[in-house]
Amino acid sequence: MKDLVSIITPCYNSADFIEETIQSVLSQTYENWEWLITDDLSKDNTVEIIRKYNDTRIKLQVLEKNGGAGNARNNSLERAQGRYIAFLDSDDFWYPEYLETMTDYMQEHHAELVYCNYSRCDEQLQPILKDFLADKVVTFSNLLKTCRLAPVSTMYDTKRVGKFLFPVKSKREDHVMWLNLLKVIPEGMPINKTMAKYRMRENSVSRKKKNIIKDQYLVYKDFMGFSTLKSLYYTANWAVNGFMKYSKIFN
């Protein structure tokens, strides 16, 4: 029997998009998965939409207090039973072969972490930038300068590396988690194939790069324990690389 994949999803006020996300999971060719959705006290009808789907693999928990995406992801991670951890935010989308291709590659190449290309789309899932390419082996060193790993396109093997939680006090929790993971494994492997869609919503934090320089600085200063000078150096590298990655958005 194929190994279980645990899909980790935080959601908050996602009623406009969650059904497309659900359909992308139900359409997966790889069927041995559990989907751990943690709702962060949505004020719309997100929870009602999720509960319409009668599939025992979908495991929804609604929090009693809003705690942010990192806290919601941690809640799902703590409940996860699978060997492989995959991340899918409640407004993103996977192609049907995503889970099968990722797990097959990990098993064949004995990889501890893999990531793939993803499309960068508007709210209607239409591409607005060129696909982000998984074209480099990721290491702790090069991940310091730019975060090539996105939750929608990355998977890791808990049997080989254990579970990694998100820091709830960082607004750059994804980057901190990936850096912590890459401290204990030598590299993450690329699959140069587009198998996911990342929805770039108008109110997305990731689209406000100019406003989060301080948060990124704290990734290095507070969470990596770097000196002020070293933290400023990596923040500058991240800012330049981030501008190149999303340059059209600032035009």
What's the gist of this structure?
Keywords: Transferase. Residues 6-124 form the Glycosyltransferase 2-like domain. This protein is of the alpha/beta class and 251 residues long.
Description:
This protein has 251 residues and is an alpha/beta fold. The chain has two domains: 5-208, Spore Coat Polysaccharide Biosynthesis Protein SpsA, Chain A (Alpha-Beta Complex), CATH 3.90.550.10; 209-250. It has helices at residues 18-26, 46-51, 69-79, 98-109, 140-143, 158-161, 173-182, 213-223, 228-245, and strands at 5-11, 33-39, 58-62, 84-87, 93-94, 113-121, 127-132, 154-157, 189-199. Strands 1, 2, 3, 4, 5, 6, 7, 8 and 9 form a nine-stranded mixed sheet that branches. Helix 8 (213-223) packs across helix 9 (228-245). The longest helix has 18 residues, at 228-245.
Q: In CATH terms, what is the fold-level topology of the largest domain?
A: Spore Coat Polysaccharide Biosynthesis Protein SpsA, Chain A
In round numbers, the mean pLDDT is 93
Q: What is the β-strand count?
A: 9
In whole angstroms, the N-to-C terminal distance is: 50 Å
Number of helices: 9
Q: What is the approximate shape?
A: globular
Proportion in helices:
25-40%
For the sheet with most strands, the description reads: 9 strands, mixed
Radius of gyration: 17 Å
Which homologous superfamily in CATH is the superfamily of the largest domain? Spore Coat Polysaccharide Biosynthesis Protein SpsA, Chain A
Overall structural class, as computed from helix and strand content, comes to: alpha/beta
In CATH terms, what is the architecture of the largest domain? Alpha-Beta Complex
Q: Give the CATH level 1 class of the largest domain.
A: Alpha Beta
What fraction of the residues are assigned to beta strands by DSSP? 15-25%
**What order do the SSEs take from the amino end to the carboxyl end, as H and E?**
EHEHEHEEHEEHEHHEHH
Low-pLDDT windows of residues = none
Number of domains: 2
Pfam families: Glycos_transf_2
GO molecular function: hexosyltransferase activity
Keywords: Transferase
InterPro entries: Glyco_trans_2-like, Nucleotide-diphossugar_trans
